[in-house]
Amino acid sequence: DIQMTQSPSSVSASVGDRVTITCRASQGIANWLAWYQQKPGKAPKLLISSASTLQSGVPSRFSGSGFGTDFTLIISSLQPEDFATYYCQQANNLFTFGPGTKVDIK
Amino acid sequence: EVQLLESGGGLVQPGGSLRLSCATSGFTFSTYAMSWVRQAPGKGLEWISVIYGGDSRTYYADSVRGRLTISRDISKNTLYLQMNSLRADDTAVYYCAKHESLQSFLDSWGQGTLVTVSS
């Protein structure tokens, strides 16, 4: 089974800050990686697929990169609506989610 | 517009059974892979099962294999999750989700249905 880790587990940030979240797979997954955003009481929303492909309608302040085992989600200028929990998910061998990174207000 | 609507959640005793349904619309149901993902209270997301479009291959997470069964009725555009031998640690919100065309990532989600396993 492929295990996913994320760091940090939580981050406190202010509006306008640049936020970086990392995700690591226990083995190489090429670019079979997605990022999701989840707000309290809501279903997750797909932000980025194939490590770096921004989904339609997702603001360009979100970007993803990486290949193999190490991946990054960057929010270039944090907006009030971005306070949420972010999950990575591998799809190289079935599916596994990372434990999540909570972005909250400093 | 893609729509997914789960139902069937509720309170069940340990060892009991429950069947969840996910009614879908807005896409060709038979073509796309569909998954169930759950989230225990205050915890992260856990993928638990997938059924692929076309050949209907199914796969399960180790935590549920042998107790949960995913299926679909193409004539009704509905996905199911039969849950047997339920345990307290199965308590969670259960989401159905549609895979995108690569069958890898989950591009549409239902609102979720809560299953509580307790005596």
Cα shape of chain B: globular
Secondary structure: number of strands of chain A? 11
Largest sheet geometry of chain B: 7 strands, mixed
* C-alpha geometry of chain A: globular
Residue fraction in strands of chain B: over 45%
Q: Which chains share the greatest interface? A: A-B, 22 and 21 residues
Count of beta strands of chain B: 11
Please bin the fraction of helical residues of chain B: under 10%
Largest sheet of chain A: 7 strands, mixed
Total number of helices of chain B: 0
Proportion of strand residues of chain A: over 45%
Pick out the low-confidence regions of chain B.
Answer: none
Indicate the radius of gyration of chain B in whole angstroms: 13 Å
Order of helices and strands of chain A: EEEEEEEEEEE
Give a structural overview.
The complex is a heterodimer of chains A (106) and B (119). The N and C termini of chain A lie far apart (36 Å). In chain A, a hairpin with a 6-residue loop joins β4 (33-38) and β5 (45-49). In chain A, strands 2, 4, 5, 6, 9, 10 and 11 form a seven-stranded mixed sheet that branches. A four-stranded antiparallel sheet of chain A has the order 1-3-8-7, with no helix packed on it. Chain A is an all-beta fold and 106 residues long. Chain A contains no helices and eleven strands. Chain A has strands at 4-7, 10-13, 19-25, 33-38, 45-49, 53-54, 62-67, 70-75, 84-90, 96-97, 101-105. Chain B is mostly beta strands and 119 residues long. Helices cover 0% and strands 51% of the residues of chain B. Chain B has no helices and eleven strands. The radius of gyration of chain B is 13 Å and the shape is globular. In chain B, the strands form two sheets. In chain B, strands 2, 4, 5, 6, 9, 10 and 11 form a seven-stranded mixed sheet that branches. Chain B has a four-stranded antiparallel sheet with strand order 1-3-8-7, with no helix packed on it. The model of chain B has no long low-confidence stretch (mean pLDDT 97). Chain B starts with a strand and ends with a strand. Chain B has strands spanning 3-7, 10-12, 18-25, 34-39, 45-51, 58-60, 68-73, 78-83, 92-99, 106-109, 113-117. The A-B interface holds A 1, 32, 34, 36, 38, 43-46, 49-50, 55, 87, 89, 91, 94-100 and B 35, 37, 44-47, 50, 59, 61-62, 95, 100, 102, 104-107, 109-112.
